[in-house]
Amino acid sequence: MTTHIGTRHFLIKGRTVSGKTFRPGDWAERLTGVITLFVGERRPGIHIACTRLAMPVVQAELKCLLVASELQLVCPAAFEFVARFAQDNDLPMEVDGMPERDGPGTAVQSAFPLAEISAIPAAGF
């Protein structure tokens, strides 16, 4: 992957390339927790695992995970884990609205305007 570190975001969508909603329903929160363990970032007063480098979001009523490209610098192993997770589970991964991978069975995804993305509320999903 060639990206401009610090200027891009990756969006992993919670629907497989075959159109099935990815389960379990809290996959994005779980993956955020794993990333938090990789980078060792904890926020005072917050009892859930969270990091500024990955955030569960909703786009067009679809659960997604927004990952900052900075994760590649901070913890390359965590970024590799996330990229492999998406690949192993056939989840589309976009870079600033462009599909990250092309190949058989990979549908071209539309751009993800940040205005259409919202953070999942605490009681969410």
From TrEMBL:
It comes from the Bacteria. Pfam families: DUF3579. InterPro entries: DUF3579. This is PhnO. It comes from Paraburkholderia ginsengiterrae. The lineage of its organism: Bacteria, Pseudomonadati, Pseudomonadota, Betaproteobacteria, Burkholderiales.
